[in-house]
Write a structure and sequence with these properties.
Length: 249
């Protein structure tokens, strides 16, 4: 089998089975495991998969640019947002992460809600202008354009003054083995900082993010109060089997 054919097979296997194990494919094709690892390394460099220990997982569609993501899985995001908005109680303080799913949460909040929202997302803050009873605190810092959020030392320092009831966390990948992941190290660090400022953290995970992985881990599943998802994927059942609370959207 030619190298190009082998890589097409790997991509097809990823699409069909949701993962590739280098050892199994090498044995199946009668080639060295190192050859399969090189293939996966090159595919990952091209943005076509995410390498993990022993193989690869599908790359998350949520790694696309911000404008592009606004048109991806809109209905799924709205379903997740509706459940997440129900976690925001009148009089409470909530931290809203950045990203298009969290923007959907902001839009799903009742117009007459009275609460406090802390966010490092300018787009989320602007959306909340339509909620006169919501007091908005916008954290400043370096703007990370991919997710339209602030991060870095200034944003992390500002977050230390926050104490919230709930943090609604956005990630780009949710996988039973790879965990909760995102595509930027600084953004992952900022998410961890915000999670430490809230009593409970809930993960916003519409179907496109389930079973996918990105480069940088965010939090262990033990640190979240639940995963909100509209997916019926087998990975969701595996998460539940691990003891992760699942909130169905």
């Amino acid at each position: 089998m030619l190298v190009g054919e082998r890589r097409e097979l790997l991509l097809a296997r990823l699409a069909g089975e949701g993962k590739v194990l280098a050892k199994d494919v090498a044995a199946e094709l009668g080639v060295s495991e190192d050859s399969i690892r090189r293939d996966l390394r090159d595919l990952a460099a091209a943005g076509l998969c995410q390498r993990v220990y022993g193989g690869a997982l599908p790359v998350s569609p949520a790694l696309a640019d911000y404008a592009g993501r606004t048109a991806i899985a809109v209905a799924g995001k709205d379903r997740v947002a509706a459940v997440a908005a129900g976690l925001v109680r009148p009089g409470s303080t909530v931290i809203l992460d950045g990203g298009t799913t969290t923007l959907a949460v902001a839009n799903a909040l009742p117009r007459d809600l009275e609460a406090t929202v802390v966010t490092h997302s300018p787009t989320v803050a602007v959306a909340l202008l339509e909620h006169p009873g919501v007091e908005v605190f916008l954290l400043g810092g370096r703007l990370f354009r991919h997710s339209a959020v602030t991060c870095g030392a200034a944003a992390a320092e500002a977050a230390q003054a926050i104490s919230a009831d709930v943090f609604l966390l956005g990630v780009t990948g949710v996988h039973p083995e790879a965990g909760l992941t995102t595509g930027d190290a600084d953004e992952a660090a900022m998410k961890r900082t915000l999670a430490r400022r809230a009593a409970d953290t809930y993960v916003l995970a519409n179907a496109e993010k389930i079973g996918a992985a990105s480069r940088f881990p965010v939090l262990p599943f033990a640190d979240v109060a639940g995963v909100i998802t509209d997916s019926a994927d087998q990975n969701v059942q595996e998460l539940a089997d691990l003891g992760v609370p699942i909130l169905r959207a």
